[in-house]
Design brief:
Layout lengths: L26 E2 L6 H6 L30 H5 L40 E9 L9 E6 L32 E5 L5 E7 L10 E8 L11 E9 L2 H10 L30 E4 L5 E8 L52
Parallel strand pairs: 1-8, 2-9
Antiparallel strand pairs: 2-5, 3-4, 3-6, 6-7, 8-9
């Protein structure tokens, strides 16, 4: 059985086999007998080839959510090497229409199932020095390809009528940089929706105070990050939580927000961990002040105007309903510098 592009597909419309590009080979920690043959397949062929592994040679993913992440995975540091100078600015992309009020949280799943992911971020300035006064606000689609949110304007992001939107904040959260400019989140691999490749949204704000104050916070960067297409195909084709009757229609090469020529710069560095989770790491470089020009990623459609950036999972975008809403509740203050 084949899709409209002629690729072999399984019963849920996902590729029967998937291969990671040599440019984005995943490093596997340990000697898992399932994952190793999958990567061995990548040793063959030219640099521009993507091999096709035998069926069954994909990693063995954990599927029960973040409870499966072991302490060894939580302790692993993906930022042991000093950044190579010069530190080049991370450019902006549209906020998109599915931003919503959020909360201070490190585990943003609320116990929901899916392939567990640790998102690890390092924030540096253009001198490659850590940024210690920042908050990182992330949001992404659920495994089903829809967004949570409390605003009725987000009904289309949940693929439902406004009356059906539940006041949940799944897969949204804020964390604060430490003395190394580091933050971590625990989540599940995002789902996909039509017209967009698989992605994560984030906004970085500076000016947060050690006691958790937000009065001086200023937005410095809003952008998006992406995932290896073959990795997405493998997860969507082998993990029941992600099973869909539709076929994913947009990849990194034809996304409506990021240009194909630029997507590599915004891909996570991905590591399959021994516990079946995924580590997605990225270093972000911020401008020194808001008076410094903010570059736009090719195809990025701007970043701070609340732009649409392609339709959401449920249809036409809602009206833009404003800017930053500080995270509520007792999620904890940022660490002291």
């Amino acid at each position: 059985m084949r899709d409209e592009r002629g690729a072999a597909v399984g019963p849920v419309g996902m590729p029967v086999t998937a291969a990671f590009s040599r440019r984005r080979v995943l490093r596997v920690l340990g000697t898992g007998l399932v994952a190793l043959p999958f990567l061995t397949q990548l040793e063959c062929g030219d640099d521009d080839d993507t091999g096709t592994p035998d069926a069954g040679t994909h990693p063995t993913w954990a599927t029960t959510g973040t409870a499966a992440i072991t302490q060894a995975t939580r302790d692993f540091d993906p930022f042991t090497e000093a950044p190579s100078a010069p530190c080049t600015l991370t450019c902006a992309m549209t906020q998109g229409p599915c931003y919503a009020p959020t909360r201070v949280a490190q585990d943003v799943t609320d116990g929901l199932a899916g392939v567990p992911v640790r998102f690890a971020f390092q924030l540096l300035d253009e001198d490659c020095q850590p940024i210690t006064d920042a908050s990182v606000d992330i949001w992404h689609a659920m495994p089903t390809g829809v967004y949570s949110g409390e605003s009725e304007n987000l009904a289309f992001c949940a693929g439902s009528a406004a009356s059906e939107v539940e006041p949940f904040q799944y897969f949204r959260g804020v964390q604060f940089t430490d003395s190394r400019g580091r933050v971590d989140f625990y989540s599940c691999y995002p789902g996909w929706y039509s017209s967009r490749t698989v992605h994560l949204h984030l906004t970085v704000r500076r000016g947060v105070t050690p006691d958790g104050g937000y009065s001086e916070q200023t937005e410095f960067l809003t952008t998006q990050l992406f995932f290896d297409d073959a990795l997405s195909d493998d997860i969507y084709g082998t993990v029941a939580t992600y099973a869909r009757t539709e076929t994913r229609d947009t990849n990194n090469t034809d996304d409506t927000v990021i240009a194909a020529s630029a997507v590599d710069e915004y891909l996570f560095e991905e590591t399959v961990m021994d516990d079946g989770s995924l580590l997605c790491a990225k270093t972000l470089i911020l401008r020194a002040s808001t008076s410094e020009a903010l570059c736009d990623a090719p195809g990025g459609s701007g970043s701070t105007d609340g732009g649409e950036g392609g339709p959401g999972p449920g249809g036409s975008p809602p009206p833009d309903d404003g800017g930053f809403i500080p995270p509520p509740g007792d999620g904890g203050a940022p660490p002291a510098p």
